[in-house]
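The freezer alarm interrupted the setup, so I double-checked each line after restarting. Inputs confirmed:
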Amino acid sequence: MNQFEQLKERLSEVGLKATQQRMVIFHSIMTSKNHPSAENIFEQVKSSNPSLSLATIYSTLETLVDKGLVKKVLVKDGVMRYDAHIGTHNHIYCTNTSEIIDFEDEELNQMIKKFLASKNIENLNIKDISLHIEGEKIDKRKSVKIN
Amino acid sequence: MNQFEQLKERLSEVGLKATQQRMVIFHSIMTSKNHPSAENIFEQVKSSNPSLSLATIYSTLETLVDKGLVKKVLVKDGVMRYDAHIGTHNHIYCTNTSEIIDFEDEELNQMIKKFLASKNIENLNIKDISLHIEGEKIDKRKSVKIN
DNA sequence: TCTTAATTAGGAATCATTCTTATTTAAAAA
DNA sequence: TTTTTAAATAAGAATGATTCCTAATTAAGA
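Predicted 3D structure, all chains:
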């Protein structure tokens, strides 16, 4: 099954029509390196899909988030960003470059999960846990590396 | 030193004129229970300060954030919210009530900090770390309790 | 008290996002 | 394969939070 078929299947699985637009948008988020905004996706996609409208991007994003195929990523500058990486993971926010860097660490996830389980949080059905690390890139030309 | 004087001092310390508006707005955030938005603050403050404008609230918030007296709090619904609690702490987001609940736990903070220190994150000057717990309140009439 | 640079009020402008509606389309049914 | 139809889309208008602009006001130092 090729990539195209896989996308189609993932949409069908959640009960969505596999439209051209959805596939293009979903694919764009999946392959984007830096947690794109609606506008970013639009820019990335419009040359090969000139008739695809920004309104469609917004409504598709909402649909994909509703169906759990995509997550919203919060940022302090007022523009929503999106992430096709659904599993529990953490983010590093570079305040001086607007980059959002994935920070995956299963050990950390487990540690936090375990800690919270020991805390007994009453009257809350937890859906997602994520650690936000905010900081400034020291050298903007280099990337942030985690060892 | 009374509360009024304290506010005045905190503003002066960071090099800000202690204007009536700033004191009123800062005080409103400090005493607000639920991480207010600009609009919330405006509503809360306007009956006793009828000439205070929404534009002033926004510019004051920006100033207070710049000076580190207030933090922005991220939410997925597109309205920025503010927190006068500056120290490292975590938030619980109730998706069904829009509440943001402080979750303070020094043990958790230390545990995360220690873990990250062991990870050696290169080329990043970390400014803030916070854990976001997202979930649904089970009984909307009751509060979320952490034991 | 005077001076002045900083701050504010209030309305206009902006910009991200959502809404509306006529048109198009995926996919189920025939 | 063709038809049917509910769902999805395009495009532009509308909304709503936030920012901008500028004249008037004010805190605080001289």
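Quick read of the result. The radius of gyration of chain A is 17 Å.
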